[in-house]
Model the fold of this input.
Amino acid sequence: MVRSLEPILLAWSGGKESLMALRELRRQKEFDVCGLVTTVSDSDQRVTTHGVSREVIKEQARALGLTIDIVTVPKGCCLHTYNDSLAAAAAAKRDLGVRKIAFGDLYLDDVRDFREECLEMIGMEAIFPLWQLDTQELAWAYVHAKYKAVITCVDEQSLPRSFVGRLYDRAFLSDLPLGVDPCGENGEFHTFVFDGPVFDHPVAIKQGTPYSEASMHYCDVLGQSNHPKQAMRRAR
Done:
């Protein structure tokens, strides 16, 4: 008799940790990722901290063959508001039988504790499939698995703005200064994944005009109207 998998939502940023969390959940064969949920800022409709547009994150979900719920939050909102908004969106899924939501966090205890508290209040449970994995090992596992991602933003306090727009690959990891986490877990940089083994097809993207907000420098990732295969060829 085939055991049915438990449905679970995955909090989604579009970046590499979200992708690796999806990969790990499927590898465990305990959960069925029934959908993604992400937040965008109300003023610019971009994914919180990553800066990717609402349209591109929807294209990414389609390429993964998953539905995505998009929650609007105030730009620059605190973690409390962010988690409350995410929990409110997840509550609608709870009423449909979903009791868990997964996150790609690695080792920030205060963030984990807060997420757990927010979901407990609505009768749901937070799951952390990547928790305390070594970030060096995770980064190289990502690269060896042949996923492709672009660096969407960097914090100038950790990295020069020249790192924005680069591919997250062997060369990028080799060029990171000492003290910068290879997964950017301390907010040094963020990514957008556009191709890899779990994708039905590559997400066709191009780079728009760079922009900055305070110490953060962004690469504007735009959708392409041409065939997805072209995006894959450009990244090689």
